[in-house]
Every structure is written in structure tokens, then in C-alpha cells.
Write a structure and sequence with these properties.
heterotrimer; A mainly alpha; B mainly alpha; C mainly alpha; B: mainly alpha; Helix Hairpins; 4 helices; C: 25 helices
Chain lengths: 165, 103, 582
């Protein structure tokens, strides 16, 4: 029963994150959705990832969003979407139908129920390469932040200079 | 009526993905696009963990989900930074203005 | 060693292209010498590579299961074409130092030339059809970019687009053929096809054979795609010499020669190749007679001479085709570059406005005359030997109608060559044009080609021996000079051919009037000038491609929302495929 409540809350937050016309509210609703996702993950028996989702998804990303929106300003867009709404709805319905078809009972391969419990060390033992890749990815992310956020004074000057000539 | 938790989560995943896709298609604000992308990826994380649980390999699912969270966060970071630059150079966050290549 | 040299011939020009690109527009003065350095280095690497020619793969870089490996095989034919591409490429670059002096945007010019040289070397050296296709497309791209180099001239832009679209038709044929072979053998390796063509189902093999014929016809400007080449003459003249006379247009001939052992048994293929060669060679020679633009005359003669090579491959005389390819590359590059010197000097391409230029540009006249004599097939220049070999093969093994038309074509060649030489360099000046002799860099580039046009046939023993030793599937025979001389001189066909050539030349001498042919041929001139209606067909294809592009443009809004919609649709399709397929 608890799952229903949490999942409902998660979807409610997600809908509001999309529908809200203020970017800041949108970001807050996203954080809420993220928190509910973390609870759901915990309920599913994945506590470590739940903690990470809570701290990164609900924490760090939200901070970044708020930071970015502070700089860009609200710029709330009430303009019409580029794609006609019926087309978007059709795409969503089709996508959902396709996913649902794939997970319908009988459509999925036979599952091996409840295998032997694996240690958390699976992260380091079996997926060491992934970890290295993640480190590289994080490094790329840091570089991205530094060049894109930090270098704005210079780029502004360059852009201004180009206009002058 | 007994509610099967896994079925609930499956439905939640499908709903999240649907909302994410809808948001991606309908919004014209660059930052909202990133929000929609975050929602879509949350569905993917849940789906990964769910699949791992069904297979009885929850730890494997957790480690994969971790990779996904890291990648997703970096996508958000770079996306936001790009949005900032767009705002600075184009003057708005509207995707329609982005299609104008001439500076 | 061969591995290193092979990589050098491709990578050195490409490194040069990047270096010049990095130098940028601000240092216009330095880009020329830098380009010369890189292209000469590549030429030296190719010359050193030639003696090391081998039938085996020397470099192989695995690219994953689906794509085979990026591997290079410098055998006789490939190494020869690499030498031609890099050596003539470096001469064209040297020539450009004078020719392009004072032009704007030189880095773009030189970096595309170097990109082209590297891609051409890669095209011939590649031993995998997939990568051959990649290099093939790079050559098409750089050809387009260089034809349209003067991109504020609408004619140049139109010529470039036409060349691009017509060679894309060929690229589609190549890709279709390659995929057919891939579906049969499960690999893109060329040698696998050549080693055992019987293992491939007959239908697929025939499909690939005719697909490659389309590819070769489009790339080498053969019937029915021949009209893009004259329009490509809007390019700067060194480009015409390098890409549209000596190298890229040979790629089609190369493709046919390379796959001849595999396709020879396909019913109807050899006849089709002969027919394409004969029709092209004869009709293009007719067009050259009435053309009034010096570069168009040379372009039609290129088309015609390529027709001779294609004809020779259809006959199975691959070594004759290879030999003529070498001769033609040298003398046609010479003709184009000396024509370039004339154009640069007088500032027009109209031969009716020239005349009597020889006295004031003696060195250019010498170069052009030697090139013309080689083109016309006058002994003992290189064009004579190779053309005679082709005509002999035609007399011995080919159908009679083909031989007669090719013989007539040889006469026409002599006629139009003499006509253009006379109109440009001899007689009285028809207009008062400001003339200055060719510059130093121009002469430097012309001199090796003059020497080559006179003496390159002496290399026949070396070239055929290398090819015979390194191309196991082609069953070529090494031929030394005495055999060549005996075979050509003893053959009655030579006398017939020489008589026809002299008759053609005599026709001009008798009728030495400036616009004689335009008047005497009357109504036929219009149809000849319109390439017998082929022009309109080619234009229609170009227009169709442009039209389709305009219409398809609405799908590319540049709006992220729509792009995301396409992503979602692709996702849905993938899901449906997985659900249904599993």
C-alpha cells in the first residue's frame, strides 16, 4: 500500500514539475519527485542507491538548477509549444503502449526468481571498468562546468569584441 | 484486492517515462527540457532497479543505477551550463530562438 | 617499411591539410610553400613505396566486427595510382604557387587539394570495399569544394553541385554493389571477392558488377553521365589538371580494373563495358571538335581517353588500360597545366580570341605541343604506345563495330588536338591580348611532365613487372620494352591507326578555317554541343536532387522539439521491433 502512495506522490510531483510555469517551482517539484523516487528505491530493497538518489538527485541537482535559474532569470515561457499538442500526446500514448506491450505478462522472458544474494562489492569487483569510466565522466562534467560557467567573462568579451569589428 | 508492489512500480515507471516524453516534446524552455530529461531518467533508474530485483540481482542493478545517476547528473550540469551560455548569447531560453544560426 | 610509407602517402597530405587550415587566412603567404612541402613529401613517400609493392595487406587497423578492418594493400595498380596522385598532385600544388597568386582564401584551396591527394591515395590503397567507399566520397567532396572554389560565381557553384550529385549517383551504385557482395561473402575484403567469385550467387554478382559499372561511369564521366566533367571546368586550372584529368576521374577505371577478374564471367558485363567505352570515346571526341573553350576541349578529350581505358578493360586488356592511364595522366596534366599558363596569361578561355600566342610564350607552346602530340598518338611519345596497345587489343579480341569506332575516335582525337593547338598558338593573333610568359613555378611544374610525356613509356617493363608480380588474380604479363616495340611496330593495326590519325590531322590542315567545323557540320553542331541530349538528362537528375532537397528541408526545422519527436518515434519503432521480433 505504501508503494501506491509513494508512487502517486512521485508522479504528482513530476506532473507539476512539467506543468509549472515558473522555472524555480519546476525545479522544486523535480526535487520532490526525486525524493519520492528515493523512497521507492529504498522500499524495493536498494538502500545504497536510494541514498545516492536522495543526495544527488534531490540535493545536488536541485542546487544546480536553482543556481542556474538565478543567473538566467525566470524567463517563464507561456508561449505555445512548437509541436502541436495532439501530436505530442499521440507520441506519448504510442510510447506508453509500446512499453506496456513489452512488460505485459507473457511478453517478457522467464525470470529467475531470487537468486543468491550478492555482496555490494559487486560495484568494485564486477564493474571496475565502469567505475573508471564514471571517474572520467565526472572529470568531464567538472571541466564542463569550469569552461561554461566560469569562462563567461572572457566569452562575453570575445562576443562583444566580435560585434565591435 | 491485493496490490502487487512490482506492478505498481511498473506502472509508475511507465507514467514517469510518459510524463518525461511529453515534457520533452511540449516545452520550449531549455531548462524545462532538462527537467523533463531528469524525470525520464528517474523512470529509467527505477526500471533498472526493478528489473534487477526481478532477476534477483539487486546489487548489479544498484551499481548500474549508480552509473546512470552519475551520467544523468553530468548531463544536467552540462545542459544547464549550455542553457546559461545560450541565455547569454541569444538572450532567451526559447528553443525556437536557438534554431537561428546567424549570430 | 611499406607499412610506414603507405600510411605516409595518406596521412602526410592530410596532416598538411590540417596544418594549412590551422595557419588560417591571416598568413596567406606561407600556405603555398607549406602545401608544397607536404605534397612533395607525400610524393616522395609514394615513389619510395612503389618498389615495395606487394600483394599482401601491409597495414590493418581493426575497426570492430561490423566494419571489418581498415587495411591497405599497395599492389602494382594501387601503388601506381598512388604515385600518379601524389606526384601530379605535388606538381599541381607547385603550379598553383604562380597560378593562384593574389587569390583570396588560399588556405581553403590548398587544404582541400591536400585532403584530396590523401583521399585518392587511400581510395586506391584500401583493400576493403567499405573504406574504399569512404575515400571515394571524400574525393567527391573535395572535388565539389574545389570546383566551387570561386563561390561567388554562380556557374562555378552550379558546376560543383552537378559534379557532386552525378558522382553521388555513382557512389550509390558503388555502395549497392558493395552491400550485395557483403551479403554474399560476409566481408568487405576485395581480395575475397577476387579469389573466389564463383562462390557468390550469380544474381548478386551481376548486381554488383553493374552497380560498379554505374559507379565507374559516373566517377569517370562515362556515358551516360559524361556531362558533369565539362561543367567542372569552372574549377581553377590546376584542379582540373589534378582532379578532373589525372586522378579522380581515374577512380572509375581503377574500380573496373580492380574487379575485372571477378566480373569477367558475368554475362553481358564485358559487352556493356565495351559499349560504354566506345560510345563515350567516340561521342566525346565529336564534342571536342566543336567546343570553343580550351578547357572544355581538354575535358571532352579526357572523357574520350577515359573511354579508351574503359574499352580496354572491357576487352580484358587490363595492362593496356593501366599503361594508358599512366600515359594519359602525364600528358593530360601537362596539357591542362600549360592551358592554365595560357589562361592565366591572357585571361580568357575562348580559343577563338587567342591565336599566335606561341611566339610570346615559347616554353608553354613547347609543353602544349608535346602534350598534344602524345594525346594524338604520334610516335614516339607515351600516348602512342599505350593507345596502340588498346587498339590492337580491340582489333584482336573486340567486336568489329567497337574497333572501327575507336579507330575513328583516334582520328578525331588528332583532329581536335591539332585544331586547339593551332587556334591557340599559331596563326595570326585574332585579338590584342596582353600576354606574359609563364612564371618560374609554372615552368618547374611543367618540365617533369614534358619529360614524362616523352619518356614514360620506357618504364613499361618496370610497371608491368611490378603489376604481374603483385596482382595474382589479374594474370597480367610482364612486358619488356623490346616486346612492346616489336608488338606495336609489327602489328598491321599500328599502320592503320597511324593512317587514320594522320588523316584526322590532315583534315584540319586542309580546312584551316577558324570556325570551319561549326559551319560545315551545320545542324549537327547543336545536338553535339548538347552532348546528344545527355546534357538534359543529367540536368534533370541534378534538378530532381535539388527539388527533393528543397522539399525534404521542412523535416529539418532546426527546432529541438521536432528533433526530439523523431527520437521518440525511433524509440517507439525500436520497442515495437523488440516486442514483435522477440
Amino acid at each position: 500500500m505504501l508503494e501506491v502512495v509513494v508512487a502517486g506522490g512521485m508522479i504528482f510531483c513530476a506532473v507539476l514539475a512539467i506543468r509549472s510555469s515558473h522555472l524555480l517551482q519546476s525545479a522544486i517539484w523535480l526535487a520532490g519527485s526525486s525524493a519520492f523516487t528515493a523512497i521507492l528505491l529504498y522500499l524495493m530493497g536498494a538502500p545504497q542507491i536510494a541514498v545516492i538518489e536522495l543526495s544527488v538527485g534531490a540535493g545536488l541537482v536541485t542546487v544546480l538548477f536553482v543556481f542556474a535559474i538565478n543567473i538566467t532569470g525566470e524567463d517563464a515561457s507561456t508561449v505555445l509549444p512548437s509541436i502541436p499538442r495532439p501530436v505530442a500526446w499521440a507520441a506519448v500514448v504510442l510510447a506508453i503502449a509500446a512499453f506496456a506491450w513489452m512488460v505485459l505478462p507473457g511478453q517478457q522472458p522467464a525470470l529467475t526468481e531470487a537468486g543468491p544474494a550478492v555482496f555490494t562489492s559487486v560495484l568494485w569487483k564486477d564493474r571496475a571498468v565502469d567505475m573508471v569510466l564514471q571517474v572520467a565522466l565526472i572529470f568531464a562534467g567538472v571541466l564542463g562546468i569550469l569552461t561554461l560557467l566560469g569562462g563567461h567573462e572572457d566569452t562575453g568579451e570575445v562576443a562583444g569584441g566580435a560585434h565591435d569589428h | 484486492m491485493i496490490i502487487e508492489p512490482r506492478l505498481v512500480i511498473t506502472m509508475a515507471v511507465i507514467c514517469l517515462v510518459g510524463i518525461g516524453i511529453y515534457g520533452l516534446l511540449i516545452t520550449r524552455n531549455l531548462i524545462k527540457v532538462i527537467v523533463a530529461l531528469q524525470i525520464l531518467v528517474k523512470g529509467a533508474i527505477l526500471a533498472l532497479v526493478l528489473a534487477a530485483e526481478l532477476q534477483g540481482q539487486i546489487q548489479l542493478g544498484q551499481s548500474m543505477a549508480l552509473t546512470l545517476i552519475v551520467a544523468d547528473t553530468i548531463v544536467a550540469v552540462v545542459g544547464l551550463a549550455l542553457g546559461l551560455q545560450v541565455r547569454r548569447r541569444v538572450g532567451s531560453l526559447d528553443l525556437r530562438d536557438l534554431s537561428k544560426l546567424k549570430g | 617499411m611499406p607499412a610506414l610509407l603507405t600510411l605516409c602517402t595518406i596521412l602526410v597530405p592530410w596532416l598538411g591539410a590540417v596544418a594549412i587550415w590551422m595557419l588560417g587566412d591571416k598568413r596567406q603567404k606561407t600556405v603555398g610553400p607549406v602545401a608544397v612541402t607536404f605534397s612533395v613529401l607525400a610524393a616522395l613517400a609514394a615513389l619510395c613505396l612503389y618498389p615495395f609493392a606487394t600483394a599482401g595487406v601491409v597495414v590493418s587497423i581493426p575497426m570492430g566486427d561490423a566494419f571489418g578492418s581498415l587495411s591497405f594493400r599497395p599492389d602494382g595498380l594501387a601503388a601506381l595510382l598512388t604515385v600518379i596522385a601524389t606526384v601530379i598532385g605535388s606538381l599541381a600544388v607547385i603550379f598553383s604557387l604562380d597560378y593562384m597568386k593574389g587569390e583570396h582564401q588560399l588556405p581553403r584551396y590548398y587544404s582541400f587539394i591536400l585532403l584530396f591527394i590523401g583521399a585518392m591515395a587511400g581510395l586506391v590503397l584500401s583493400s576493403s570495399l567499405l573504406y574504399l567507399f569512404f575515400f571515394w566520397e571524400i574525393t567527391a567532396l573535395s572535388s565539389y569544394a574545389l570546383i566551387s572554389f570561386n563561390n561567388d560565381d554562380p556557374k562555378a557553384v552550379r558546376g560543383g553541385i552537378k559534379a557532386l550529385i552525378m558522382t553521388q549517383v555513382g557512389g550509390a551504385g558503388l555502395l549497392a554493389g558493395a552491400l550485395a557482395l557483403f551479403s554474399a561473402t560476409g566481408s568487405f575484403e576485395i581480395d575475397q571477392v577476387l579469389a573466389n567469385p564463383v562462390a557468390i550467387p550469380a544474381g548478386l554478382l551481376a548486381f554488383a558488377a553493374f552497380g560498379f559499372l554505374v559507379a565507374a561511369a559516373a566517377k569517370s564521366a562515362q556515358f551516360p553521365f559524361q556531362t558533369w566533367l565539362p561543367d567542372a571546368m569552372e574549377a581553377p586550372t590546376p584542379i582540373s589538371a589534378l582532379i578532373h584529368a589525372a586522378t579522380m576521374v581515374n577512380a572509375g577505371v581503377y574500380l573496373l580494373a580492380r574487379f575485372y577478374p571477378a566480373f569477367a564471367e558475368v554475362p553481358g558485363w564485358k559487352t556493356a563495358v565495351i559499349a560504354v567505352g566506345v560510345i563515350t570515346a567516340f561521342s566525346a571526341a565529336l564534342m571536342a571538335i566543336v567546343a570553343g573553350d580550351i578547357k572544355r576541349v581538354l575535358a571532352y578529350s579526357t572523357v574520350s581517353q577515359l573511354g579508351y581505358m574503359v574499352y580496354a578493360i572491357g576487352l580484358g586488356a587490363v595492362e593496356a588500360a593501366q599503361f594508358h592511364l599512366l600515359s594519359h595522366a602525364i600528358f593530360k596534366a601537362l596539357l591542362f597545366l600549360s592551358a592554365g599558363a595560357v589562361i592565366h596569361s591572357v585571361g580568357t578561355r575562348d580559343i577563338f580570341r587567342m591565336g599566335g600566342l606561341g611566339k610570346r610564350m615559347p616554353f608553354t607552346r613547347l609543353a602544349f605541343v608535346i602534350g598534344s602530340l602524345a594525346l594524338a598518338g604520334i610516335p614516339v611519345l607515351n600516348g602512342f604506345w599505350s593507345k596502340e596497345l588498346i587498339l590492337e587489343a580491340g582489333m584482336e579480341t573486340g567486336p568489329a563495330w567497337g574497333y572501327i569506332l575507336m579507330l575513328a575516335g583516334a582520328g578525331l582525337t588528332a583532329l581536335y588536338t591539332l585544331r586547339v593547338t593551332w587556334l591557340v598558338f599559331y596563326g595570326k593573333p585574332r585579338e590584342d591580348l596582353h600576354v606574359h610568359p609563364a612564371g618560374k613555378a609554372m615552368k618547374t611544374a611543367l618540365l617533369p611532365l614534358v619529360i614524362g610525356s616523352i619518356f614514360s613509356w620506357l618504364l613499361v617493363a618496370f610497371v608491368t613487372r611490378v603489376s604481374a608480380n603483385t596482382m595474382p588474380y589479374h594474370h597480367m604479363e610482364a612486358m619488356d620494352i623490346t616486346t612492346l616495340v616489336q608488338e606495336v611496330i609489327m602489328n598491321p593495326g599500328t599502320l592503320i591507326a597511324l593512317a587514320v590519325i594522320l588523316a584526322g590531322a590532315g583534315t584540319w590542315l586542309v580546312s584551316q578555317r577558324v570556325r570551319f567545323f561549326e559551319k560545315s557540320l551545320g545542324w549537327a553542331v547543336h545536338s553535339i554541343q548538347a552532348s546528344f541530349g545527355m546534357e538534359s538528362i543529367n540536368d534533370a537528375i541534378t534538378r530532381l536532387a535539388g527539388f527533393a532537397g528543397e522539399k525534404l528541408r521542412i523535416t529539418q526545422t532546426g527546432l529541438i522539439s521536432w528533433n526530439l519527436l523523431y527520437v521518440v518515434i525511433a524509440l517507439i519503432l525500436a520497442c515495437i521491433y523488440l516486442a514483435v521480433g522477440a
